[in-house]
Amino acid sequence: MSETAPLNVKNYLNGVFYVINTIVTFGIGVFGWFGAQSNTELSAKYITLVTPKGTAFSIWSVIFLFQAIFVVLQFLPKFRATAQVQEGVWYWYVITCVMQVAWTLSFGFEQITLSLAFMVLLWLSLVAIVFFQYYVAKKQQPNNTLLEFWLLRFPFAIHCGWITCASVVNVNVVAVRYAPEDAVLQLAMGIVSLAYLHAVSVWVCLALDRPNFTIAIVIAWAIGFVSDQLNTPFDLIKERFSETIIGSVGWASLAVVFIIGIQVAVRLVLMTGVTDICFNPKEAEEVKALTIETKTKVAAPGANDENKNNKDESSEESVEVPV
Fold this sequence. Notes:
The chain has 323 residues and is mainly alpha-helical.
């Protein structure tokens, strides 16, 4: 598309729904409008083993800030018609905002099971954005830029990473809601939650052609604050679990953070010498093989001629001369 392409429905809807989402999320979730309970109050009421410390939720300011930047930029001629906006984000961001508003309302009015359903839909919509932007960037390689990443893709990657963690906490909240005295169930779900989040971090760091470090780092951020919270657990947690269990889960959480850090470092080492943010190891292997082959030919320029002479001599020896 041309940079002078006119604004379209997607551009306008992105702006409108960002504003709606911001008003509802902060009005209901933070300030408790219309008699709703704030997210902080409900998190304390339905505290789980994997609920992060309140400081972790400051990441919302980063999410909304970068999405505000995205919304403004996607109105400008330079960005409005780009593939990342029109094909990558598409109408998925509108769906994301709708699902987040629905989650905020249902959770604020303590409809816990319904809030989980909306949380899962919210997560799926963000996964869709990350997925389609991934393939748009892959098609554009090697023309991707850091500016495009930070302005058009990072706002949704960080949101997706956080909702990946929040959805896991929401599952645990449902367990606390319906089985508040079942410590065994809550412990099992907490352990599975940490294992699941670690598995996601492995996938985005090591399994993809083009790693998504943002999601992995956000997961490490959330789990790190889970460990921090368990250092000074809520009274409800101390009533349900022994000091040994609380300490063990806390140390396990911290271990997962370090493991994720190692994964990121390993992938960065594998990417050494590659400047493109969208690294493709398969292509790198092909380039490496071609480079080795070229160096071999340069180092032994007469090798092919020697092989050819040997072949010719062999052919002459095998010719039968009639008597």
